[in-house]
Amino acid sequence: MPNFGLNSFLRVIQMIYGYARVSTDKQDSDNQKNQILDFANTHDLGKVDYWAETISSTKTHRLIHELVEVLQKGDIVIVYELSRLARSMSELDSIRVKIADKGAIIRVINQNLTLTPDGSDIATQALVFALSLSAQIERNMISDRTKSALQAKKSAGAILGRPKGVSRLDAQRADIERYLSIGLNVTAISKLIGCNRQTLTNWLKLHNLDNA
C-alpha cells in the first residue's frame, strides 16, 4: 500500500508498482493481482508495491492519481490491461501522459505492451486508443452476455452462486501446480494467487498436494 515517508524524495532505487481497478467483483481483483505478481516474477522485476481500488461510476477520488504522484524516473507501473488505468478514453490519455512526464514506464500484461516516457508519438497514441476501445467494447459484450445467462438460469430455477464445499482455489489448480513444480513454497504461492497462507495449506493437504 502507499508509503509517503518523509525521505521518499531521496529514493534512487527503481520501484515496481502494480495497479488494479475493479468495481465490486472480488474475484476479478484477485485475478488482476495474481497476473501482476506472476508477470513481475516471470520477468525478474523484483518486489511489487501493489495498489488496488474498488470504485463506482460516481466515485471522483482515484487512488491512481496518488500513485502517479509518487512515481519517479525509471519506475514501472504494471497493469493487467490498459483500460484498468481509467474509466474513459480522455482520462486514460491524461493518466498516460502524467506517468510519462514522471519518466515512468507502463507495462500492460494482457496486450503485451510497454509504454515508455518518450512514446508520445501518433502511432503510440493510436495503438493505445484502439486497445482501450476494443477492451471497453469486449467488457460491455461480456457483461451483457453474463447478465443474460444469469437471468436465464434464474428463470429456469437454478440456484446461483458457488456450491457449498467448492473452493475458489479449485479454479486456480493449474497455476498452483505449476508454481509447485518450479519449487515455490506455500508463502510465495499464496501471495501470487492472492489468498491466505493457511487457506492454501489446507487446500493443498485436502488435495494431497502438500509439498511442505
Structural features, described:
- With 212 residues, the chain is of the alpha/beta class.
- It has two domains: 13-132, 3-Layer(aba) Sandwich (Rossmann fold), CATH 3.40.50; 168-206.
- The protein is built from seven helices and five strands; from the N terminus they run βαβαβαββαααα.
- It has helices spanning 26-42, 63-70, 89-101, 122-155, 173-181, 186-193, 197-206, and strands spanning 16-22, 48-54, 76-79, 105-108, 113-115.
- The protein has a five-stranded mixed sheet, with helices on both faces.
- A hairpin with a 4-residue loop joins strand 4 and strand 5.
- Mean pLDDT is 77; it is low at 4-10.
Question: Can you tag this structure with a few keywords?
Answer:
212 residues; alpha/beta; Rossmann fold
User: Topology as H/E string?
Assistant: EHEHEHEEHHHH
Beta-strand percentage range: 5-15%
The residue fraction in helices comes out at: 40-55%
CATH class of the largest domain: Alpha Beta
What is the topological layout?
Elements: E1 16-22, H1 26-42, E2 48-54, H2 63-70, E3 76-79, H3 89-101, E4 105-108, E5 113-115, H4 122-155, H5 173-181, H6 186-193, H7 197-206
Parallel strand pairs: 1-2, 1-3, 3-4
Antiparallel strand pairs: 4-5
Task: Please sum up the structure shown.
The chain has helices at 26-42, 63-70, 89-101, 122-155, 173-181, 186-193, 197-206; strands spanning 16-22, 48-54, 76-79, 105-108, 113-115. The protein is α/β, with parallel strands linked by helices.
